[in-house]
Amino acid sequence: MPYIYRTLVFSTVLLGCWSCRKDEEAKPDSEVRQWVFTAGREITDKQVKKRFIERAGVPFTVLPSTQVSPESVRFIKPDTVLFGASTIPFAVVKSGRQYLCYSPLVVRISDPNDIIHSLLKHTSPLVPIPTATGFSYLTKEVRVGYVEGDNLRISRLHYRLKRTGSSGSFSERSGLLFNEFNQASSARIGTGDTLAVQESSMLVPIQ
Description:
Elements: E1 33-38, E2 41-42, H1 46-54, E3 73-77, E4 80-83, E5 90-95, E6 98-102, E7 107-109, H2 115-118, E8 127-128, E9 137-139, E10 142-148, E11 151-164, E12 170-177, E13 194-205
Antiparallel strand pairs: 1-2, 1-13, 3-4, 4-5, 5-6, 6-10, 7-9, 8-9, 10-11, 11-12, 11-13
């Protein structure tokens, strides 16, 4: 499975680059927001949502203890940051309180129309690569944060996607990304498919 869509832990390499969007983005708070969609429409029944989310391969639970990270971010230059224990530097572009982080070109994608990629509000262009690699494109993972005092509030996006194939078979993908939800992607959820998305955030101290 492409790197960007695996379940991620914050203490692993946090890849990022920032794109400017002045006045467009509101600083997120500690609120947890959940959506469930099927056939392009939102499911509002709380019990149906709860049952589907509870079966996700990646727990959607956001405990108070997970809302402040034991890791930190360290700016080695005004436009370069290190995340956690990683020694990989990431370029930073600031737009007010918003920081968008773009990794090096390490994310491999086979299908430019991949549904999980479309969930992301902030993305980087796809760069074609030789198909002999088994993939068609490389791109950068984008992570989103907002300055809040001496911390960076990092956005978290949990997802669970269950799809029905033409033969009646099922496939499922779930994971956690440090990005925001592109709500327009819900229109791509077809009949027989179900998508659950949760937005939350965590505070990461700035060294």
